[in-house]
Design brief:
Number of strands: 7
Strand content: 15-25%
Helix content: 40-55%
Mean pLDDT: 82
Distance between the termini: 50 Å
Oligomer: single chain
Order of helices and strands: HHHHHHEHEHEEHEHHEHHE
Structural class: alpha/beta
Radius of gyration: 21 Å
Strand order of the largest sheet: 3-2-1-4-5-7-6
Low-confidence stretches: 1-34, 38-55
Amino acid sequence: MAASASKAIVMIDEIGSLKNCIAAIDEESMDEQSNPEWAMNFSLFIEKFRVVYMNLPALYHKSHAAPKRDVGQLIQEYSSKWKWRLDGADSLIDVGSGPGDVLIDYIYPLMPPNFTKIIGSDISADMVDYAQRFYHFVEKCEFLTLDIGSPKPLPQGLQGQFDHVTSMLCLHWVQNHRLALNNMFKLLRPSGGDCFLIFMSSHTIFDAYLHINKDPKWSPYITTDVQRFVSPLHGCDQTRDVFTQMMEDEGFCEIEADLRPRSINYGTVENFKENIKSVCGLIDFIPKSKQDEFMDDFVAAKTGDLSDSQSKCSMKYDLLIAYGRKTVTI
């Protein structure tokens, strides 16, 4: 069942249709239908799809497919820098795991065979529930809620318990980077450890947030501080230096930071709008009857018009990749 369900999940992500997913299951999986137990288990999987997949975490997963693949390659590139324990009994916590796919697909396979534990965390209980449901079978792995940007003390049982802290595509949502870095430092063992982070320091969608918030047509509906949807480093001229200094101030050493420009082309305006809508933090503030019109204006705020050209269907952003170590605390 696990292999068949895994294949089906992948196909749902790629095809976006339950009907097509079932039709696309490969010959090997179809052969298993001769087994009544398989049929029963697959029915349970379909029910799980209806309950869990058709919600915000799944939309987030779909819209971030390209950046996540890029992050996976960067994890492979930088993983040789990670400081692994000599006995291989490493423990790791991932901050902002979302639906859990990056953690399971790219970080989990790097762990030593006899690692102690790996924890995925997210501020969203829905994301944690989604990840726990789909990855409950992964050995020595669990998911829990954690607000890394909270001034409250870290949950009991987490502080000083990890050899590695990672965070992929999360910190652009955290407004207080110093506080987040301080909490990450506290998650690492007193005997030392390291931290590896990747996030979007700037993004054209951040400009669109700021622009649409000033539009008198939509500003009355947006009853929140739009700045919380914008990376605190957006517009910074010396991103690497500023973030490196913050890491150093919070106790990290041997810091390496790199800034890499990226772009995604969605092909058509409609595809562009669909992907943006799934991650647009302001859409929930707009009445449902006006959301299509809002998305037209939101995309126009980013592109300048709704011309269906390749250049108008791209998003540009900068990825900040940062690594640092915690030395032994005496």
